[in-house]
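User: I'll paste a sequence; please echo it back and then give the predicted structure.

Assistant: Echoing your sequence first, then the prediction.
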Amino acid sequence: MTQHATNLMYDITPPLTGDLQVWPGDPPLTRAVLGTRQRVAAGTTSAIHATVHLGAHVDAPSHCGADLPSIGECDLAAYIGPCQVIRLAVERGRRITPDLLKTPPIAQRLLLATGTYPDPTRFNDDFAALSPELIEALHRKGVKLVGIDTPSVDLFGDDHLPTQHAAVKRGIAILEGIVLDRVPEGMYELIALPLRLVGFDASPVRAILRPASP
C-alpha cells in the first residue's frame, strides 16, 4: 500500500478505486460516466455508487441506532486538530486493551496503527479491533476521537458492536479504514472532515496528517 507524504503531509486515505474492498455485503465503489455536458465539451460528468463506509471514513452515532445523530449533525471539531499516532504490537483477531498502549495518549485525537489489515484491496476478517475497556480508558484521558487502520473498531462478526456503542456513550468519534503503514509515531494535526450527509450513518473522508508545530 502506497503512503504519500507531500510537503511533510501524510495522506492516510486509501485510493478510492473499484479494487478497494468494502465490508462483505456492502456495495463497492462503482463509477458511471454520464457523458459530456454541452458547456464542458472536453470533460465528463460522473456518478458514483458505494457504501458510505468506504475506505477512510467516520461513523456517526446513528450507525448504532437510527434514533441517534447522523453524520450531518456531528460536531466537526472532533475531526480536526492535534493528534497522536501510536504503533501497537497486537495479534490479529484480538481486541486492544488498555495495557497494550505502551505510550500514554496525550492528545484528544488518537490513531492506532495495528498492521493487521495491510492491504485495503484484500479483505481479511482477522484484523484487530478496540475493546470497550479501551474506550473507557481513553475517555478518562480526554480523548475525543479514536482512529484505527482496520475496517472497524469492532471485531469481524461481532454484530452487537460493543466498542461502537461504548464510543457513542462516551461521545468519542470514530475514524476507520485509515492507512498508517509509513507514518511514524508522534504528534500531528489531523484533518478528516466528513461530508454534510443529512441522515447518513457515516461519511468517507480525505484524512491527512501534518506534523505538529514545534
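The CA atoms of residues 91 and 172 lie 24 Å apart. The chain has a mean pLDDT of 93.
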